[in-house]
Design goal:
This protein is of the alpha+beta class. It has helices at residues 14-29, 46-57, 61-65, 121-146, 227-232, 287-299, and strands at residues 4-6, 34-38, 77-79, 96-100, 164-170, 182-185, 191-196, 202-205, 211-213, 221-225, 242-244, 252-259, 266-267, 285-286. The chain contains six helices and 14 strands.
């Protein structure tokens, strides 16, 4: 099981806490790339968010289809069943999703996504988006210290981020060989902050190729790093393949927050991660261009985020 990291340790100073987090999170990112976060302060938001998710996915199919994601939607909207293949070599995933993108610093941006007709839904999504975004900034500050940078190094790169809040529903798996809730994949961006229900099914692949369960821990987030942060760290950090095997005979819900840099951010190995013995492994690329290529492979259209 991945380790549990307490975000706020009682009795420690801010400097002591940051130093501890940098060691604990940095060590995990250099190894399995998956960890839990507890004592994060958002415990009261968890059950209401799952309640909203259940209400959304219970809407009539036509209402959800009217919100469908498209090339023009800026990666916002509904992703229907049998639409997405996170593992291109496997059957399509057995799940549906709703993607939300906002600017956490600008309330006016709340109209940028496609919203369902559920009173209170938009306000709840925005409040949670802002809270979990701030949590992601705190984790990035520990990561920056571990990589030999100033704690706030990533702050400007994560302003107006290409962040996505994603509600996910996995119906019971059909009896079809090879079908998974979500095929094996690594996440595209910097950091994923995930809530899961007690259905289980999330698995991560260790470096020896063994798949291990990532069990449900009440009140804790599951966090993992993605390919973009792995590029910045020049592969000191590891983005771990993971998948979802939906449990037989029951539904599964999860809520993912993908914290990714702004579109203009230049993604290239950080100077502290490059040396004569370890030259840069990746050429520079803007985050916008990088994500456009990844979305195209998944959705089949150019979903380059707006700038």
């Amino acid at each position: 099981m991945p380790p549990v990291v307490e975000l706020h340790a009682p009795g420690s100073t801010d400097a002591e806490n940051l130093s501890r987090l940098s060691r604990e999170i940095g060590g995990v990112c250099r190894d399995v790339g998956f960890f839990y976060v507890s004592r994060h302060g958002l415990e009261a938001s968890i059950e209401p968010m799952f309640a909203w998710s259940r209400r959304f996915f219970a809407l009539p199919a036509a209402d959800k289809a009217a919100l469908a994601i498209s090339a023009a939607s800026d990666n916002c909207g509904y992703v229907g069943l049998d639409t997405e293949a996170l593992d291109p070599g496997a059957p399509v995933d057995c799940k549906e999703a709703f993607n939300i993108r906002l600017d956490p610093a600008s309330p006016a941006e709340a109209d940028a996504a496609y919203w369902p007709r559920l009173d209170g839904f938009r306000a709840a999504m925005r409040a949670y988006f802002v809270d979990v975004y701030r949590l992601g900034l705190d984790i990035h500050r520990a990561i920056a210290v571990d990589l030999g940078l100033a704690p706030t190094y990533f702050d400007p790169l994560l302003q107006n981020p290409m962040a996505t809040l994603r509600l996910l529903h996995y119906p019971p798996l059909p009896d079809v060989a090879g079908r998974l809730g979500a095929g094996a994949h690594t996440d595209y961006g910097n950091l994923t902050i995930l809530l899961t229900d007690d259905a289980g099914g999330l698995q991560a692949r260790r470096r020896d190729g063994t798949w291990i369960d990532v069990p449900y821990i009440p009140g804790a987030f599951v966090c993992n790093i993605g390919d973009c942060l792995m590029r910045w760290s020049n592969d000191y950090y590891v983005s771990t393949p993971h998948r979802v095997i939906s449990p037989a005979g029951r539904e599964r819900y999860s809520i993912a927050f993908f914290l990714d840099p702004n579109a203009q951010a230049m993604v290239e190995p950080l100077p502290a991660c490059v040396s004569a013995d370890r030259p840069a492994l990746y050429p520079p690329i803007t985050a916008g261009d990088y994500f456009a290529s990844r979305f195209a492979a998944t959705y089949g259209f150019d979903a380059k985020p707006s700038t």
